[in-house]
Amino acid sequence: MHHFTVVPVKDQQKSDYESFEGVNWVDYREAGYSSRDPNDTVSSDGHGYHKEDSPFLNKTDSLKGSEYYDRNLALFEEELDIRPKVSSLLSRLANYTNITQGAKEHEEAESAESSKKRTPKTMLTAISMSAIATNGVVPAGGSYFMISRSLGPEFGGAVGLCFYLGTTFAGAMYILGAIEILLAYIVPAAAIFKPVQPHEETSAMLHNMRIYGTIFLLLMCLVVFIGVKYVNKFASLFLVCVILSILSIYVGVIKSAVYPPEFKICMLGNRTLSRNLFDICAKTTTENNLTVTTKLWDLFCTSKNQTDTCDEYFVQNNVTEIQGIPGVASGRIKENLWSSYMTKGEILQKHSLPSVEASGSRKNLHAYVFADITTTFTMLVGIFFPSVTGIMAGSNRSGDLKDAQKSIPIGTILAIATTSLIYLSSVVLFGACIEDVVLRDKYGDAVNNNLVVGTLAWPSPWVIVIGSFFSTCGAGLQSLTGAPRLLQAIAKDNIIPFLRVFGNGKVNGEPTWALLLTAIIAELGILIASLDMVAPILSMFFLMCYLFVNLACAVQTLLRTPNWRPRFKYYHWALSFLGMSMCIALMFISSWYYALVAMLIAGMIYKYIEYQGAEKEWGDGIRGLSLSAARYALLRLEEGPPHTKNWRPQLLVMLKLDEDLHVKHPRLLTFASQLKAGKGLTIVGSVIQGNFLENYGEAQAAEQTIKNMMAIEKVKGFCQIVVSSKVREGIAHLIQSCGLGGMKHNSVVMGWPYGWRQSEDPRAWKTFIDTVRVTTAGHLALLVPKNVSFYPSNHERFTEGHIDVWWIVHDGGMLMLLPFLLRQHKVWKKCRMRIFTVAQMDDNSIQMKKDLATFLYHLRIEAEVEVVEMHGSDISAYTYERTLMMEQRSQMLRQMRLSKTERAREAQLIKDRNSIIHQGTVYSDEEEEIHVYPDRIQMTWTKEKCESERSRTRAATPNSFRELISIKPDQSNVRRMHTAVKLNEVIVNKSHDAKLVLLNMPGPPKNQDGDENYMEFLEVLTEGLERVLLVRGGGCEVITIYS
């Protein structure tokens, strides 16, 4: 809800200023002073200083002209053609007809311009890894080293730590697999926990796996601790056993074509029966010439003699025995070729067998074999995937390889090719030899818990059992060997501080402490005990590692960095992206929640490393990618100016340093951080006076000082120091050259020149005014926080109060946008916004407030609105006296400077009568030149010439200060002072308690002779206000009503 108040402001009699520093006040309006020409009221005193014939505008003459109501805006009159009065613009703004709104026209201009003009995944990962591994020396760390040096310490640490956890859990899974084989097939009697009831078998098995798994883990850790050479010796033994097991399977398949093994399964109709509950696959049997019922009959019937007590399905269907392994020549491949997924609790059925559909009793369901889980393609892939996660085993031990660049590509690719051939051929051969119900029987209930592959193999099932046992033991041993080395490599890089202790080890470099942590984590996996619960965790960690290996190769290839020269040539970025995409897809289709958990863990590790500040420069690809992205973005920004909707202040903050290179006004940075809130571009600049060759070290120190102050004030941006022989030229260079391409500043923030009145040196305000002119010429916005030391720090909070906007002339909407941006910061969040605008005599203030309300509504800005009427436009005596004092002060300072100049010139004439050296004025800096002399004039001095030169110089200086009394103020200065005084009265009256006042900043006069008066006008305009922000727009619209 907008609040409207129309406040008429009348002239207040300034009785307090009847006597002003000994100069009596005279009412010149009664003295008959009048202008010779209403359009020419200024004359010259002969020295370039303007005097007016009449100190006041004649009211009747003013009424004849069109500038009567502009007298209250005389400070802004020189720019009214480009910065129109708000009163003349509001109606167009409210009715969408303002051509400077920018959004609609911008879009039209753009449109006009445009009318003119599985196995595959692991193999792909291996190819990417081979390219990275052959692009330089790969010390210990393997995949972690490759990822971290390619993508940076954050990605390397996050993925490396996840891969370490995956490898460690893989070791636990392999140990659990070995224990399952040991207790199920080799030594069943060794089980410590034995089930009392059938439903307790699973829990008893898990308890046994936990006990024996812990023992096996300790033994394997002991072998690894003794030394890697013993691991290699065991690995050779395990490899021989595995090769013999694989060969025995192929031999058994060939043998099954002629002599299939006796491997019967019992079927009731087309349903598979659990063979653990009975011995004879028949309803009845003959004993001593008598027909007796079997245990199978007892499972389905309550009486041994009456069939009416039996299960209906049992009565209607026959019991048959079929060959579980009919052999490769049986044609089973036709039935097993197509997928047939099952749901949990569904009975395993062979659909080719005859069956009579009948309802059976639910109490007899335990006699059948059920699917223990609901199967889908993705779920089965997730279970199978850990069997192919060993492709990184060689790279994990890269530090132990003689030539890692040669061994990793050859070994990894050959290993994947070999295992892929074995896996694929095994799948096909098993489907050709074994019945589908047997393949789906996870726990072997239909075959009395016999090992199906062992039965198929030749010459004995023990070859498979022993081979499988040693294979899982070897895989676990390799995981326990590689994981500690991976952790040690991460710890030695010191990117995760709390892991630093794990970088230490034995004298020979063996990772003792890392092995201890690995054993503890693996023990946690063993205590979980369930392989199906461990497998998805492993899959996610390994897939993340493979994903980033592919990403690293793709990034390096696309960036074409000069250091990217892998010896392995058979790679392409498209293959890496394909492998990366497959990894992402597999992560989510196998288990989306496990994928999210894994990504969350990796993200937390990434942010931790980033927060701790991993100050590592490894020439990683992410930095190169950032440079390429920055270049691309900068080139895009060059295509055209930013849209009005995207405009935000990109700041160049001009700081002043003292002699000790300390920032004089650090609150400028505080204000910048509150205005920006971390968004957009911020450049902090400063100028050091001197020679670059001599002051380079000083510039570096100043840059470091400013960066430290930026960190304290939480300003995110860049620092730019310029060394220049002239301060004003250095500032101009900064304003012109800061930024790059389209990423340039559009606003300048500079401090107010405090103490300029007390200083005889005009540098205090000359540099300030020149900077205002430079920003205007560069079409840049200018923000001048006055009394910046009273601005709040980032730790303060305003719980109430107002941000007042005095909108006098329209210069692009900066005054509307800045309070909105400030209120996004926690310091100013609770402040409310008030907008004041000025109505002149001929303005309709009622219509103005309606138009302003409409305009704010369309801008989506909530603010209270007040329209202030400034009716009394007669220039008061106070205004005249204030102007008179201003010009008297200026004249006094000029005489003092001229006196200094005369003394300096006389000293120079006495010192050197043979030449005139180029002499700048003493009061100015090296860039101030009131009198211009040739650089060097060669002439002969005589006594007459010397006296003549002295007389000429003295003639330009008044003999006394009594002439100051007779000075009449310049009429234009009186009008400007009138504007400053009247506006200040209104602003102080309405905004004396405001937390911040934003005000249009008048432009400096086109005639540079009035620069000092301009500073006085600004001082008068802002008197009595605690915090003021003077704002000048950059000549473009920065806010729009369009979406």
UniProtKB/TrEMBL annotation:
Region called Disordered, residue ranges: 31-58
**What are the coiled-coil residue ranges?**
none
User: Could you tell me which residue ranges the SLC12A transporter C-terminal domain spans?
Assistant: 666-773, 797-1043
**Membrane topology per record:** Multi-pass membrane protein
For the Amino acid permease/ SLC12A domain, which residue ranges apply? Answer: 122-253, 362-652
One GO MF term on file is: potassium:chloride symporter activity
Locate the transmembrane regions by residue number.
Answer: 124-146, 158-188, 209-228, 234-254, 367-388, 408-434, 513-531, 537-558, 570-587
Q: Which GO terms describe its biological process?
A: cell volume homeostasis; chemical synaptic transmission; chloride ion homeostasis; potassium ion homeostasis; potassium ion import across plasma membrane
Q: Which Pfam families match?
A: AA_permease, SLC12
- Keyword Cell membrane tagged: yes
Q: Name one GO cellular component term.
A: synapse
Q: Do you know which InterPro entries this protein is assigned to?
A: AA-permease/SLC12A_dom, KCC1, SLC12_C, SLC12A_fam
- For this entry, the protein name equals Solute carrier family 12 member 4
* Originating organism: Chiloscyllium punctatum (Brownbanded bambooshark)
Q: Lineage of the source organism?
A: Eukaryota, Metazoa, Chordata, Craniata, Vertebrata
